[in-house]
Amino acid sequence: MDTKAFKRSLQQSENYHRKGFGHQDEVADQMQSEYQSLLIQEIRDSNYSITRGDVTIHLAKAFGFCWGVERAVAMAYETRTHFPSEKIWITNEIIHNPSVNQRLRDMRVEFISVDSGKKDFSVIGDGDVVILPAFGASVQEMQLLNDKGCTIVDTTCPWVSKVWNTVEKHKKREYTSIIHGKYNHEETVATSSFAGKYLIVLNIGQAEYVANYVLNGGDKNEFLAKFAKACSKGFDPDADLVSVGIANQTTMLKSETEDIGKLFEKTMMKKYSPDKLNDHFQSFNTICDATQERQDAMFDLVEEKLDLMLVIGGFNSSNTTHLQEIAEEEKIPSYHIDSVARILSANRIEHRELSGDLKITENWLPDGKIVVGVTSGASTPDIVVEDVIEKIFELKVLARV
Ligand code: SF4
User: Fold this and answer.
1) Ligand 1 contact, 69 CB (< 6 A)
2) CATH number 3.40.50.11270 given to 67-157
């Protein structure tokens, strides 16, 4: 399928919208009152630090809602204002934050249900409005919605579209896209739908396995079993790893994406000689600024002397998980929570481990004076961070009486 041509024709259709509808001011006020926080503003204004009683909070210097998320949520709000009585659907969570998704449900935006891993698009009627979330939708979904005559409001973040353009460039040159990401993450599903041949690697370990196969060959069946869900149809590692281009899910750990890029650059140089590199390797920088800034701020934060760290964000949020990874690497007691409700008491906190399992840790909040690092993922509104900080203040006050 010529995905580029399809996108071009979709963008010319009068049923397709990728900008707001002129209700920005109204929506900005609404979002400010629902998601912003005076306490967080106060902490920002005091060089990202605040002390109350026994508690000092150090906030990361970049955290929370990114530009792309804010834009997507605002567009969803505008859609409701613009189509007050129409049926509005969304193909997936708008962003990975439970409170924001709930807010959309309250605004009568319906989520397309998934049955045995398949979305049920049959519920969408002629003339319904369908929102595509910040991390996009696959080209097949877009085509289906377009064929149904829906009004499409596309909130895909431009950084994500940039990755789609990158894999389309690989496709044009018949390069295989090596995508650093999670094969079942919505963004990577969408990105791979725009690619020609592709292989998705989760981490540097998988990338090393592939690089080794390129240089030394190996067990093809084992390779295909390992990447069964993470490669294009008919993928043949013996034939399809001759020329490769690098792309990524925008929220992966930046340093790891860079290492994967360097690894394949070196591998292709070794296999085909440095002067032939351009025929076998292509790389564009597709790491989003917001992800990069939040990770850099986290690296600065973990340099501080901290007693513990709280990483706040949706449990299915990839960028939040990577922030947690940074804290764990520094051996700081760190808890990934998605809302204040996970703080069960001064003694118990429920949190997500890197494995994805939920765990309850006892005695998580130390006695006496404490310094707490706080950050939040790109889908987390400030108000959620405020609730968590206020809870810590409250628990420490109660501990004194
Ligand atoms: S994290 Fe980056 S790519 Fe994702 S929505 Fe935010 S700005 Fe866009």
Assistant:
1) yes
2) yes
Dump pLDDT digits (tens) for 269-298. Answer: 999 999 999 999 998 878 888 888 999 999
Ligand 1 center from residue 66 Cα (angstroms): 6
- Residue 183 CB–ligand 1 contact under 6 Å: no
Q: Do domains 34-66+290-400 and 67-157 have the same CATH topology?
A: no
Atom of ligand 1 nearest to the CA of 69: 5
What CA–CA distance (Å, rounded) separates 375 from 308?
Answer: 12
Closest C-alpha residue for ligand 1 atom 7:
68
CA separation for the pair 356, 61 (Å, rounded): 27
What would the pLDDT profile of 54-109 be if each residue is shown by its tens digit?
Answer: 999 999 999 999 999 999 999 999 999 999 999 999 999 988 888 899 999 999 99
Query: Cβ(157) to ligand 1 under 6 A?
Result: yes
Sorted by where each begins, the domain ranges of the chain are: 34-66+290-400, 67-157, 159-287
What class does CATH assign to 34-66+290-400?
Answer: alpha beta
Instruction: Give the CB-side neighbour count of residue 59, counting CA atoms within 13 A.
Output: 25
User: What gap in Å lies between CA 328 and CA 336, rounded to an integer?
Assistant: 11
Statement: 159-287 belongs to CATH 3.40.1010.20: yes
